[in-house]
Request: fold
Amino acid sequence: MFDSRCSRSDLPAEIPPRTPRTYEGVPMSISSVSLIPAPTTSASAGTAPVKPASATAGLRLTARGRRLFGGLAILAVALGFGALAAPPAIAAVSNVSAAAELEQVTVGAGETLWEIAEGAATTRDVRDVLADIKRINGLEGAHVEPGQVLMLPPDR
Reply:
């Protein structure tokens, strides 16, 4: 561990004191280090008071964040135009003569969509007719309200 080539005479007799470190001309010591800078007044240093970072900094985005927000804005505009350009539910039937063949039914009290599809399905499977009724009327589920008017598909 001890190197015989190094002797005590090689070491200086007295270790010189360290010069204190400074930050912007202010001497620093371990006890004076702080993560939050102390506010200064304009009278003490002849400069404007230090403002907290939250008061001076606005929203700062990286290039990735700008691309993300730009993409979201384009997506929102595209969805808005898509909603405006979407055809009404009755226009889902492309053929004009097929639209003339649609039958209109008013939902009665206690009546379900399945019962309406059963009544309309004379030659087809009830599940297929039910799917057509939902598609034509723009329904997401099978819930219908009494008095609601539904368009029924022609029985093919």
User: Anything to note?
Assistant: The chain is about 35% helix and 10% strand. The longest strand covers residues 103-106. The helical segments are 42-45, 53-56, 63-85, 96-100, 113-120, 126-137.
